[in-house]
Structure formats: C-alpha cells, structure tokens
Amino acid sequence: MKLQTSVQPGVSLHYRIRSDLEAKILSGHWHPGHRIPYEHELMAQYGCARMTVNRAIASLASAGLIERRRRAGSFVAQPRMQSAVLEIPDIAVEVARRGADYRYELLSSSRRLVTSADRPQAGFREGDEVLELRCRHLADGTPLAVEDRLIGLATVPEAAEVDFASVPPGSWLLGHVPWTAAEHRISAVNAGARDAKALGAGKGAACLCLERRTSRTDRTITFVRQLFRGERYDLVARFAPKG
After folding, report:
1. How many other CB atoms are there within 10 angstroms of residue 184's CB atom?
2. Alpha-carbon gap, residue 148 to 77, rounded angstroms
3. Strand partners, 106
4. Torsion of CA 5, 6, 8, 10, to 10 degrees
5. Could you give the angle at the alpha carbon of 227 between the alpha carbons of 208 and 164, nearest 5°?
6. Which of 17, 62, 113, 183 has the fewest other C-beta atoms within 10 Å?
7. Cβ of 239: how many Cβ atoms within 10 Å?
8. Strand duo 66-69 + 73-76: pairing
C-alpha cells in the first residue's frame, strides 16, 4: 500500500519540507547513506529561513529517518530492525494477503486533552494533548473491525497535520514513526450497541478485542483498541522449539 505524502493547502512550510524529504526516503529514491541537501540549499529551494529548514531536518532525525553528522551534513539513516513477540499488523496488508479488497473509513477525528476518565493502560499523562480517531476497516465491502485510537501529540506532533481520511493511522504510524516498545492485550468481548452498529452486527456479538500501546523512550506514541468481528478474524502465531 502506498502512503499518501502530499501536503494539503495551508500546512506549515517546515512540514511541507519534511514531507518532501520524507517521500524521497520512504520511496527509496534516496537510499541509506545518501546525503540530504545542505540547509543553505534547502533555504534557497524553498525560499525560507534557516530555522524553518532546521526544524524539518530535526523532526526527520527525531523520527530516525536521517542521521546528522557534525561538519558533514545529514544522511539517510540505515533502516532500524524492530521485533515484538506479537507482530504489529497493518490491517490493510493483512486483508490484501487474505485475497480481499480493503477499504477504510474515518468515522471521527478530534484533538483533546487526556483526562482522568481515560484508561490508565493507555499510558498518557493527564493533560497530555492527543489526537482521537475512530475508524472502520472493511474487507470486500463488509465491516471487519472498528478502531478507537489515541495518538500522543507531544511524541508525534506531525500527526496533527496528516489527512487521516486518506490514510489509515496504523499504516501511517508504521511507515513514519519508529518505536522501542509495544504492549498487547487480547480478549474476547461482546460488542456494545455502538460498536455493534459500526460492525454491522447484532448487539452482544462475539468479537476479538486487541488493545496495543506502542511507546518510545517512555512516552506513549499511540494506544489503540481494535474490535474485530469474531467470525471474520483470527490471530495466528507460528514458532518452532529452540535447539
């Protein structure tokens, strides 16, 4: 699945610069080790101040996409290896692997502050600003999962400027934001009225609930609760004995 990297009108210039550079990196046009244009070259290209360019470069470095070398410039970083006991799936990719047509819908989006009513396992601190998203994933036109997600804007500020009506947040995060730790919780639940309606199922329908928190340097990146229709989804792990 190709992620959308175009910038919408009105987006800040530093984000436009970051997105342009990021697109070249993620597309493979710039390979690991490729030198990013010097700051004065980008200043001339975009007609902006050094501070604007530096902010774009710094955000790419923070995301692990480039490395800055003193007196040498900035270079595309080597890909980071990530692993977890349970792989973090991209639902769009999983649906395609099963031979179905994938479709995604953004049901709601808002920015707000974390309150004491939020679940403590989400890992956010009260008063943190988050982007709250509710989405639906479909396979062959039939609802497969409903997703409620919080993205920490202190950790991933660029998420506030992404058009999540066009790209699923899980796909975007996997492609753009490196993480260092993940926690999973899997349970069987019965759908409440709101979730059942979104899934096109009866109230109380059996569902598989996957809750996941990913973090970097002790700060939560995202907390997501995905509710799958029980008869349409399963989790499979393959492993072999050691030795």
Report:
1. 15
2. 32
3. 135
4. 90
5. 150
6. 113
7. 6
8. antiparallel
- Does 84 fall in a domain? no
Q: What percent of the chain has pLDDT over 90?
A: 46
Provide the CATH number for the domain around residue 44: 1.10.10.10
Its domain, for residue 139, covers 91-232
The answer to the question of residue 95 being in a domain is yes
Q: What integer pLDDT is reported at residue 9 of this predicted model?
A: 45
Pair (100, 220) in one structural domain: yes
Cβ–Cβ under 8 Å, residues 146 and 136? yes
Residue 120's SS3 state is helix
Q: What angle do CA 216, 36, 72 make, to 5 degrees?
A: 95
Displacement of CA 237 from its chain's centroid (Å): 23
Question: What is the total count of domains within the chain?
Answer: 2
- Residues 210-221: tens digit of each pLDDT: 999 999 877 899
CA distances 202 to 44, 90, 142, Å, are 59, 26, 14
pLDDT band for position 10 (cuts 50, 70, 90): very low
Structure tokens at 26: 């993620």
The answer as to whether 242 is a domain residue is: no
Q: What is the DSSP letter of 161?
A: G
Among 25, 50, 76, identify where a domain stops: 76
The token pair that represents 143 in the structure block: 């609802």
| Contact criterion met (CB below 8 Å) for 56 and 15 | yes
Other Cβ atoms less than 10 A from the Cβ of 185: the count is: 11
Q: What share of the chain is helix, strand, coil (3-state, %, to 5)?
A: 30, 30, 40
